[in-house]
Amino acid sequence: MEFKNITTFLKVAELRNFSKAAEKLGYSQSAVTIQIQQLEHELGVQLFERIGRGAALTEEGQSFVFYANEILGAAEKARDSIRKGRGGAGPQDITGQLRIGSVESVATALLPGLLMRYHEICPGVEIVVQTSGRDELLEKVRSNRLDLFFNLEAKAQYPGMERRLLKKERIIFIAPADEKAAGSWMDSRLRKGKLSAHSISSFPFVLTERGESYRYELERILAESDVELRAQLEIANTETIVHMVEKGFGLSFLPAFSAERAIKAGTVLEAATELPLVYMWLQLFYHKNKWLSPQMEAFLKVTEKYFG
Fold it and tell me: CA nearest 249: which of 257, 241, 260, 261?
């Protein structure tokens, strides 16, 4: 069983397409087909269903994904051990690729600093970042299309996943600092005392999409007071939301780290309310059967130290 055939199998499983895998690996499509056929012959099973232009894993193929990662992981671990035995290996010598997933708010505000720190320590590692919602990120980690992902939510456990709790984050209401930009809707209630649940509902809001953990928590809290919040505008990108608040479009409810720079710059302000304080946890997840490659092991150490 050749390593190159196993590598090709994992790439086809990740991309679910023979031609895309061939392009990514620098092979012809016929070469990829031959390698998969050789692997299927050795294993005595069919690994993929060829449906149109796509390639879907069979049940046997899904099972082999785990073992394929274990085989390549063991080989990489052996190479790493030999390099260390020669005394020449350190974080700066680590190579390979690390595939990171993240919800948008974390990717925008927190990942840049972390990735810069990691790159300083492991400059030879290629980093690929994908942003999406929690459910899609979870599915990609389970199918080995991502190595790990970051999420911001209440403490969570998912079947088959390892979790690292990194940091407790506060979720806050923000309002424009410029009353003229806000226009007629902004009044003294934002600067005097705390807003009640019912008064909050009278303001225009710019919110993240429905289903986002902290928006869901806000709607749950308001529902306890029989208050329904209607968004004037829904935007997935938290940085854009902060800009819209600065321009006076409305209030918002975001992680404090998303609005930190704007608050320091004096373009938005934190609005006090009578609602319970809301906190979410920055969490990192990866598959419990995932072999921790040198680049992934180094990333976990850097991440815990960075947020510790």
Answer: 241
Domain-ending residue, one of 71, 88, 105: 88
In tens, the pLDDT along 241-286 reads 999 999 999 999 999 999 999 999 999 999 999 999 999 999 999 9
Q: Give a yes or no: residue 41 inside a domain.
A: yes
233-234 and 206-207 strand pairing = parallel
CA torsion 299-308-160-152 (nearest 10°) is -100
Q: Indicate whether 75 belongs to any domain.
A: yes
Domain assignment of residue 64, given as a range? 1-88
CA angle 7, 15, 146 (to 5 degrees): 80
List CB contacts of 271: < 8 A, sequence separation 6 or more.
Answer: 172, 173, 174, 175, 190, 195, 251
Is the pTM higher than 0.85? The answer reads: no
Single out the residue in 23, 58, 88 at which a domain terminates.
88
pLDDT one-digit tens code per residue, 166-206: 999 999 999 998 877 666 666 666 666 688 888 888 889 99
Number of domains making up the chain: 2
